[in-house]
Amino acid sequence: MNLISYEDSWEADDPHANFKEEVSLYSVADPLPTLKVLSQDTDIPVEALIRYILVKYTASGSDAVLAMTPLVLRQMQAHVEKAERVRTAVSRLEAYEALRQMIGWLVMGLKQQGSENSGKVQRDKMVSL
């Protein structure tokens, strides 16, 4: 697997601009040295660790909805507080857009789970990945 960094440009009104910016920032670092050390320390193959990280990340949307971690809540609250502090229609629209994107990310996990018959089926499928 070739893990490439993401370098691109996008329009300011791109609905995925926040995500693209994050991917661009995080993909600068090479995760393989850390994963190789973790693999050596745990006797878990690097490929299995990569799979674990990917599954854990993709499942985190639904986990966040269930747990609503303080970080997610604080991020959402910060958008609202900024809009209320600035008190303009533009600031409120920006906050709405940020919240819409965050909620969309959280809901993706629910949509995936909704396509399964039960939590047990979901866990069984995750284990057999």
Chain-wise SSE layout:
Elements: H1 17-26, H2 32-42, H3 46-67, H4 70-86, H5 89-114, H6 119-128
Helix pairs in contact: 3-5, 4-5
Number of helices: 6
| Overall pLDDT level | 80
| Sheet having the most strands | none
Q: Uncertain runs with pLDDT below 50, 5 residues or more?
A: 117-129
Q: What is the H/E string? A: HHHHHH
Helix content class: over 70%
Task: Tell me the distance between the termini.
Answer: 17 Å
Based on Cα principal axes, name the global outline: elongated
Structure description:
Residues 117-129 have low confidence and may be disordered. This protein is elongated. Helix 3 (46-67) packs across helix 5 (89-114). With 129 residues, it is an all-alpha fold. The two termini are 17 Å apart. It has one domain (30-128). The chain has helices at 17-26, 32-42, 46-67, 70-86, 89-114, 119-128.
